[in-house]
Amino acid sequence: MTRTERQRWLLPSHLVEPGESGAARPRRTVRDWIVDTSLFLLAALVGLIAADAGAEYSSEPVILFDQLAGAAACCALWLRRRWPVGLAVGLSLLSVVAPVAGGAVLASLFSVAVRRPFREVAWIGALAVAASTVQVFIRPDPTLNAGIAILLGFVLILLVTAWGMLVRSRRQLVEALRERARRAEAEAELRAAQAQRLAREAIAREMHDVLAHRLTLLSVHAGALEFRPDAPPEQIARAAGVIRDSAHEALQDLREIIGVLRAPGENGDGDRPQPTLATLDALVAESREAGADIVLELDVDTAEGEPAVPASTGRTAYRIAQEGLTNCRKHAPGTKVTVTVSGRPGEGLDVTVHNPAPAGPVPHVPGSGQGLIGLTERAALAGGRLEHGPAPDGGFALHAWLPWPS
């Protein structure tokens, strides 16, 4: 038995989805057949007891009518799922002259209480009580007091309808819990997908910030070797050394990022220290060795007793300066670049990268602009802001402010 078949066997027919044709008529499951058969047998048993009790003081035609009416009422119960309200009304009216239909009436009232709202259950129950009361006077039982008979009929109808409403409430609760579980599962899948997307974006930004700087150095020096094959051997050797070191650093940075994706316990080289503000001098020195003219102005309060720059803030500042130098090398080669870092605890950390307009034509270097977008997102995630655009002198300026708690 498949999972779907088990669910259909366990669910009541009014909770089973309609067929492909879209018909509203519920499908009778194995469970429904068991319940309907049990109710049919129970109603038949009650009818036989009532018929046997009334046979002592009824005539032959009345006994025959009771038998036919009881059989018809019990057989009509097989329609209770399709027409519960109409069946309950008809059986209630029939029970006025045929006490043997009492069991079928109770079964139909139970079905109405399970499938219909309280307003319909209330007026159908009131009709059944009225029919039971009238029956006491039309078909009285000589062995039972009229008041007791009326009270007994009222109590039985009340118990059956209350039981049916309890079953309805329980089914609605179960369905609500299932729907809540399905919704929670869908939300969990959505959150997982969103977390994966954010992780991919973070890794993509990190790869861009790290590798763009190294690969730009490779491109610049490889281009110099291509267009100046007659350069002195010393310059060629220095350019080749920069290319070799940049390729090695790019490979190391790539290993570091890939290490984040490894499962816990796997060996790798992902335990290298992350760059901070203290390693900014090394970044500038590396760019100077590549031939860039860079002025670094560092004015950060490091007095004794003052809190140091947080590691996350320093790392963000490093990445901003790195991306700024990479863009200057790509779009304004040969210009004098000024990197300014200043700040105080409680005031924040300011990072500015400025370059004037290049004097001559600039070779086209492909770029998607994703670096500045990634830096803006990185600064926003750190609680700061980033601005970039043309400078008044015709050059380009990149400025970021990052929080530095006191």
TrEMBL record:
TM stretches of this protein: 33-51, 87-114, 121-138, 144-166
Database matches in SUPFAM superfamilies: ATPase domain of HSP90 chaperone/DNA topoisomerase II/histidine kinase (SSF55874)
Coiled-coil annotated residue ranges, if any: 167-205
Sequence ranges assigned to domain Signal transduction histidine kinase subgroup 3 dimerisation and phosphoacceptor in this UniProt record: 200-265
UniProt entry keywords in alphabetical sequence: ATP-binding, Coiled coil, Kinase, Membrane, Nucleotide-binding, Phosphoprotein, Transferase, Transmembrane, Transmembrane helix, Two-component regulatory system
N-terminal signal peptide: none
CDD domains from the UniProt entry: HATPase_UhpB-NarQ-NarX-like
Catalytic activity reported: ATP + protein L-histidine = ADP + protein N-phospho-L-histidine
The protein's name: histidine kinase
Organism: Streptomyces gardneri
